Amino acid sequence: MATIARQLVDAIIGDFPHHKAGTRPVHTVGVGVSGHFKASECARSYSTAEHFQGQQVPVTVRFSNGAGSPVERDGWSDVRGMATRFYLANDAATDLIAMTLREFFVPTVKDFLAFCEAARQTPVARQSPWSKIADMLQLIRPSPDPIPGQAESGAAGSLAYANHHGPARSAVFDAGQIGAPVSYARATYDAVHTFVVTAPDQARRQVRFLWQPVAGVALVDPALPPVNAYLHGELRTRLRSRPVEFLLLMTIGETGDAFDDPTIPWPARRVRVTMGTLTLTKVAADQSANCEKISFNPCRLVPGIALSNDPILAARRDAYEVSREMRGGTQCPFAAGPR
Ligand code: HEM
Q1: Which site from 44, 47, 56, 334 is most exposed, i.e. has the minimal number of CB atoms within 10 Å?
Q2: Is residue 36 part of a domain?
Q3: pLDDT 10s digits, 14-69
Q4: Is 290 a member of any domain?
Q5: 31 CB near ligand 1 (under 6 Å)
Q6: 291 close to ligand 1 (CB < 6 Angstrom)
Q7: Is residue 125 assigned to a domain?
Q8: 243 domain-assigned
Q9: CATH number of the structural domain spanning residue 208
Q10: Which residues make Cβ contacts (< 8 Å) with residue 122, sequence separation at least 6?
């Protein structure tokens, strides 16, 4: 019997029929970038974590497309990822993994396996105009046309799952209309889970993290035909003229907010603190070491920031390790934080 971690990875692979052995099963296409992070003046009063003390901390960031396919389909509507590694003193490091969706699809590991099963890709075809009219006469929304070149999709299965599982509705709805960013530098990336930060006075706060692009958010016009590969080139060109900056925002949860459930976004009216600025300066020269082979893990934390009791967050620790082993990723020299 496979471990739960292996079952999770296999379930993801099952959703991407074009998965290629030796690559990430999801967020397969990516680009590694380097730069630094500098905490804001107030950050250290919220967390004793080393990267929040104000010194300049080197970072590697991997931007990615969400799909588990090695084909670069930048123009397709898809979730995008931003995985950041902060390099600390004495060969320590900590990671923060975020995506362009503000909530996750399911609250438990069991639900994740069921969701993956439901979201298997099925063939998609353009609906005939007559069938569209027939649907509209019955007040049924006609199927959206497939993207040119798209033969399969997991959208129908995800929708059917969400119809019967309330917690998945928000993420399935948001993912369905997420679109394609004009640049990896022009999207907001949410770390989704709750973490617990400890202040110098030992005050513990439940928080969520978000990367806000200084350049602002911009999507490609969905009416334009999708372009396959533009995001890596756009980033290289952009970095030649100026650095790419993101603000790290930390939202502080209040009593009654969902601390252990990543499917529930917190109310908008919460205190939000700027924890620092990320400045990316160049596309990493070695894309094998600093992108393809690197292995990020959301549970790789340092004192001053800890996991919440979110079961999805806990499950990701071993799932990412199993995936790293399967694809021959570089073994991480840093001890993973407490569960
Ligand atoms: C049970 C839930 C989840 C499972 C089983 C899972 C599994 C995985 C796996 C196996 C990988 C590839 C890891 C590697 O080979 O290095 C991955 C990558 C990734 N996941 Fe998840 N994931 C889950 C939830 C999430 C959530 C909630 C987020 C939102 C922040 C997320 C964002 C990402 C991103 C951005 C990457 C790409 C990381 C990189 O660039 O290396 N995942 N996920």
Answers
A1: 56
A2: yes
A3: 999 999 999 999 999 999 999 999 999 999 999 999 999 999 999 999 999 999 99
A4: yes
A5: no
A6: no
A7: no
A8: yes
A9: 2.40.180.10
A10: 152, 153, 154, 156, 157
